[in-house]
Amino acid sequence: MKRFIGFVKKEFYHIFRDKRSMFILFGMPIAQIMLFGFAITNEINNVKIAVLDQSKDTETQKIIQKISNSSYFTIAQEIKTESEIESVFKKGEVKAVLVFEKDFIKHLQTQKNAKVQVITDATDPNMANTISNYITSILQNFIQEKNKNNKQAYQIQTQTQLFYNPAMKSVFTFVPGVMTVILMLVSAMMTSISITREKELGTMEVLLVSPIKPFQVIIGKVFPYIFLSVINAAVILLLGYFVFEMPIEGSLFLLAIESVLFIICALALGILISTLSDSQQTAMMISLFGLMLPVILLSGFIFPISSMPLPLQVISNIIPAKWFIIIIKAIMLKGASFSVIWKETLILVGMTLFFIVVSIKKYKIRLE
């Protein structure tokens, strides 16, 4: 029995000495419960909306103030004409536009009835539906408070209009999201495993000291995955277009260029992971747990980023998938040009260069 107890103690010592085991046992569960607990939510917070107030009277100002004071919405801007609505939506920051009819207070006082139009960006149908319900609820609450001191009941009619996805098809959200997840995980994971395999077998150093230059070795290892990932992207787009009737409103050429840029970014991230990993198992663990959860939860694919706590919103900015989802939705559903998505494109380019530079430095350190 003493031998058995001694053996168990030894195993405990081995586990406590191994930082990776400790991270898997305690670090990963804590990280996952924090991510799932804060990121997975159907509620909305601090959603940016725009206002088109064609009446500009005391009642509309009270309503705007009431909406602004709620934790659900932030008045991002006020627009002057209906022609500005689509350009506001194309920029991607504003998720809804609140339109007050002309002579709002006059209609409310004389006809006891006034109209408010809620126009939502339905590229994310679930979020659009939630926004519409929240705004309607605030308007109803406003009119109930107003009716407390009036004998005759006032009414506000809410008219909803959906931009880009009037049929509320969820596939409009899932095709860009699934494409992003597949390209990120396949590109990064396969690249990191491929290069780590060479290191694990001891052949990477042989390749790098051969007449072939180091960057040529890396490009040679990565190029097949660029080709295969491009095929994956094309298959997903074709299935989305022909099977699920996913529209492609923007330029196919721009969509192709942006997709290749994201693939290269993901491959560069895979190379970086390989420099941090000594074995295929470690590379697989980093790729799966270090990429899969953040890509799904913090990219805006399923859950709105604006509803997450501020620390998670900040962290989401370093997730390449977030910027690619914004780009691909803007091109496919909104028909956006490069002038609309240049900022997101520049961020992806910067991330790609960062991953490549760090990877090259790491490889040089390993060969010294």
TrEMBL record:
It comes from Flavobacterium gillisiae. This is Transport permease protein. It is a multi-pass membrane protein. PROSITE patterns: ABC_TM2 (PS51012). Its main location: membrane. It is found in: Cell membrane. Belongs to the ABC-2 integral membrane protein family. GO terms for molecular function: ABC-type transporter activity. InterPro entries: ABC-2_transporter_component, ABC2_TM, ABC2_TM_bact-type, ABC_2_transport. The chain crosses the membrane at residues 21-40, 171-195, 222-244, 250-273, 285-304, 340-360. Keywords: Cell membrane, Membrane, Transmembrane, Transmembrane helix, Transport. The keyword Signal does not apply. Residues 132-366 form the ABC transmembrane type-2 domain. One of its GO terms (cellular component) is ATP-binding cassette (ABC) transporter complex.
